[in-house]
Amino acid sequence: MCQVFFLIPKMSGGFSLAFLSLILCLPFVASQCKRNPVIFNFGDSNSDTGGYAIATGFNFEYPDGRAFFNPPTGRLCDGRLVIDFLCENLKTNYLTPYLESLEPDFTNGVNFAISGSATLPRYVPFSLDIQILEFRRFRNRSIEFQSKGFKNVVGEEDFKNALYTIDIGQNDLTGAFNSLSYAEVIEKIPSFISEIRDAMWAIYLVGGTNFWVHNTGPLGCLPEKLGTRKTNATDYDKNGCLMSLNEGAKAFNAKLDALCQELRLSMKNSTIVYVDTYSIKYDLIVNSASYGFKNPLMACCGHGGAPYNFDPKIKCRDNGYNLCEIGSSYISWDGVHYTQLANSIVASKILSANHSTPPHKFNFFCNS
């Protein structure tokens, strides 16, 4: 047994402690780096640290951020995301969104992830290819500024030694399943993978050699999917998740894994780590009681109550939503995104390297 403690800021200043006892826990032992860790992240809302809010001017309000940041920071979560915990592990600042205009700090990298992003269609803000174009512009301008004597910019060696993290694909699968049959979704997966291949090659061609690639999670276990899709009793697995959506996610992940294997052979002197976050996240559902979760398929913030607390007409952040008590142990925050508590467990499993191929620790890139 162990206890995980979260420091939650009080509105009046100071901190209060909220804790959950876990049967299994992996402590967040800070990693050591020989040089300044620089990370460039590409993805969707699973790793968006405020990019969507900045790009659209949308003002996220309570209850987002209530468990940590308070007020909200544009993260679709009650607190920190997996990428935030990974940055904490390296003792580096949280990643600043690319479009931040007020006092941005890009000395430790940039977050290009934007909520709602997918690999396709191309040339649509902020699809993966647009994020790569933004990265290339940022790289060129940074190197130009460094040559002119500017300080506190990412230099050419930083770009070469940086870690390039990629976590995208969930929205591609969601969009496909909303309009296509299972067979048609499977047929489209290679086109999603092709976009990720192009993105990784674009980074490699300008000197990037360290890649950290997350696969996609169990789509069929999200309360949003469970609460909106017309189903039959035979559509569910023994844990209450929709089998076809999970099988689609696994098919995507198999292709992504194969891509990583292919690129390890063709990208000389590169390191490509494939992280099986699907297994980590599905384990939270299967063994929810062991982690202290009482409602593994129910959203903390939503409407409608059990079994999923998800109503497409009254979603979290809409007028009339209901909210679980602070400190409650939920996996899903709003039906689509995970809670800070769930993210912390996912991050701890990632940091163990037990779900990574090859099994590198997260700090490999700043020590090699």
From TrEMBL:
SUPFAM superfamilies for the chain: SGNH hydrolase
Domain of life: Eukaryota
GO molecular function: hydrolase activity, acting on ester bonds
Pfam families: Lipase_GDSL (PF00657)
Gene3D superfamilies assigned: SGNH hydrolase
Signal peptide (UniProt feature, chain positions): 1-31
Key words of the record: Glycoprotein, Hydrolase, Signal
Family: Belongs to the 'GDSL' lipolytic enzyme family.
Name of the protein in question: Alpha-L-fucosidase
Organism annotation: Buddleja alternifolia
Lineage: Eukaryota, Viridiplantae, Streptophyta, Embryophyta, Tracheophyta
